[in-house]
Amino acid sequence: MKHRTQISEICLYVPSIRMSFLNFLLFSLSSRFSIEFPSIFLCIATVFDKFQTFSTPNHHPRSQPFFDHVFSFSVTPDLKIWFRNFQIVDETLQLQEIGPRFVLETIRIFAGSFDGAVLYDNPDYESPNAKRRAIKLASKGKYIEKELHKKAAIVKAQQIKEVIAEKVEDPVGEIFEVKEKPSTEEAQRIAAIIDKKKKKKKLVKKAKYTGPESV
User: Fold this and answer.
1) Which helix (DSSP H) or strand (DSSP E) does residue 108 occupy?
2) For residue 191, what are the β-bridge partners?
C-alpha cells in the first residue's frame, strides 16, 4: 500500500483523471478525454481495466505487486491523442521517458471489432484522398492560369505585328518634307557643305586588321 501511494505521488506529474494499475504498468488518461472524447475514454478505460497481456498471470503464486512503467494518453490542442511511455526509476522514484512516442488521430470508433454502431465519428478528419484531390485541383488552377497567360501573350504579339505591318501615312512628314532647292546663295553653299560631308563619311572606310606586322 505504501508503494502504491508513492507511485500515485509520482504520477501527479502526468495530467490524469484516471489511473488503472496492472502488475508493472500504470495507465494514465488525460482529463480532457472525458470532455473531448467521452466514448474513447470509456473504451480505453474498460479495455485497460481487463488488460492482462503485459502483466503476470492472475493469482500467480510467485507474482508480487510492483510498478515500473506508466502509459500516458493525453489530448493535444488539435484534438489528437499523444501516447508516451515512461519508466519509473527505482533509485529516485522519478519518471523517465523511454519511448516509443506517437500521435494518434481518431477517425471512427465502432461498437464491434470492425462493424457495429458508430460510437464516435471525427467530423474534422480529412482523408488522404481528399487532401491529394485538393492539391491536384490547386495545381490544375495554376495550369489553367498559365495557359491563359500564354494565349494572351500570343494575341498581343499578333496585334503588335499587325500594327507594324499596317502602312499609315505620316501627316507630319508631308508638312515638313522640303524637296525644293534653297533659293539664296548662302543656303545653297551651306547645303553643298553638308552634302560634301555626307559623301566623305560614305567614302571613308576603317582599315581592316591584318594581324601583327612582320619584323
Assistant:
1) strand 108-110
2) none
How far is the C-alpha of 187 from the C-alpha of 185, rounded, in Å? Answer: 5
Q: How many domains does the chain have?
A: 1
pLDDT in tens, 73-117: 787 777 788 888 888 877 777 788 887 888 888 888 787 777 788
In the block, which residue shows the cell 571613308? Answer: 204
| Position 158 in a domain | no
Domain that includes residue 40, residue range: 2-106
Mean pLDDT, rounded, of the chain: 69
Task: Say how far apart CA 58 and CA 198 lie, in whole Å.
Answer: 118
Contact 81, 106 (CB under 8 A): yes
Burial of 27 (0-12, 13-18, 19+ CB in 10 A): buried
> Does any domain span residue 67?
yes
